[in-house]
Design brief:
This protein has 8 helices and 14 strands. Helices cover about 40% and strands about 25% of the residues. The model has no long low-confidence stretch (mean pLDDT about 90). It has a 5-stranded antiparallel sheet, covered by helices on one side. Helix 6 (about 170-180) runs antiparallel to helix 7 (about 190-205) and helix 7 (about 190-205) packs across helix 8 (about 235-255). The chain has about 260 residues and is of the alpha+beta class. It has a single domain (about 30-255), classed as Glutamine Phosphoribosylpyrophosphate, subunit 1, domain 1 (4-Layer Sandwich), CATH 3.60.20. The chain has helices at about 10-15, 25-30, 85-105, 110-125, 125-130, 170-180, 190-205, 235-255; strands spanning about 35, 35-40, 45-50, 55, 60, 70, 75-80, 80, 135-140, 145-155, 160, 165-170, 220-225, 230-235.
């Protein structure tokens, strides 16, 4: 019947054909999933950030998960999606980049690294259709072009270079709104860190799967920068200070009726 046509929705088509949809199984729902990650360009490179929460359905399975990693000296990757496959993909990606540099005597180009990650995501498509999708953000400093660049991917491995910023994960829509409102060309590092921190803070406020700053456990989202000096994590003290300022600002607005 025409009204039963699922259109471009492949999962709905599979359901209509009577093929079991494992993505709806309780086992998949109970596996840890991680969100939310963002990346923006600033005047010296790129900034990557991610919250620390992993969820299994409505249950918080981990509060200290790391989602932002160095890929090599001049690039990094932030992960969202099924935690197990995502972490495995990061480790394999790091190993492949290291192996290429040892064999060839020079690092792979930034475009080559993004293409390699795209292939790995495409190879995960069969698992993604079962609910084990991995949707990373890849960013780095292109030493040949002398600037920061960032890439997003779809579940089938499609690669898309973003001009200014990117977000992935269940809280990405809220994070993107904050970044759109605060982004401007040639951000300095301090303003860029504040912007991604605000984006994750608002995402955590609206999305239950995204973890915000945990003052009791002294846990904060991970933020890193990638410049001509390479991949460098922003220190825990600096990140804590930024989130403390955000919280103080929110309290001041509430006290003032704003």
């Amino acid at each position: 019947m025409p009204e039963d046509d699922p259109g471009p929705n492949f999962v709905a088509l599979v359901d209509n054909m009577g093929v079991p949809n494992h993505a709806q199984g309780s086992l998949i729902d109970e596996l840890p999933h991680g969100t939310t990650c963002v990346a923006i360009k600033f005047d010296s490179g790129v900034i990557l950030a991610g919250d620390r929460r992993a969820t299994s359905g409505h249950h918080i399975s981990h509060r200290t998960m790391e989602k932002v990693f160095p890929a090599d000296q001049f690039s990094g990757i932030a992960i969202a999606g099924a935690a197990g496959p995502a972490l495995e993909m990061v480790r394999l990606f790091q190993l492949q980049l290291e192996h290429y540099e040892k064999v060839e005597g020079k690092p792979l180009s930034l475009d080559g690294k993004a293409n390699q990650l795209s292939q790995m995501i495409r190879q995960n498509l069969s698992f993604a259709m079962q609910g084990l999708a991995v949707l990373p953000i890849f960013a780095g400093f292109d030493t040949r072009m002398g600037l920061g660049r960032l890439f997003q991917f779809d579940v089938a491995g499609g690669k898309y270079e973003e001009a200014s910023f990117a977000a992935t994960g269940s809280g990405s829509i809220h994070a993107t709104t904050v970044i759109k409102m605060g982004y401007k060309e040639e951000l300095d590092e301090s303003t860029g860190v504040e912007l991604v921190a605000n984006a994750l803070f608002e995402a955590a406020d609206e999305d239950s799967a995204t973890g915000g700053p945990d003052l009791i456990r002294d846990l904060y989202p991970i933020i890193a920068k990638i410049t001509e000096d390479g991949y460098q994590p922003i220190s825990d003290d600096n990140v804590a200070s930024v989130f403390s300022s955000i919280i103080d600002e929110r309290r001041s607005k509430m006290a003032g009726g704003g």
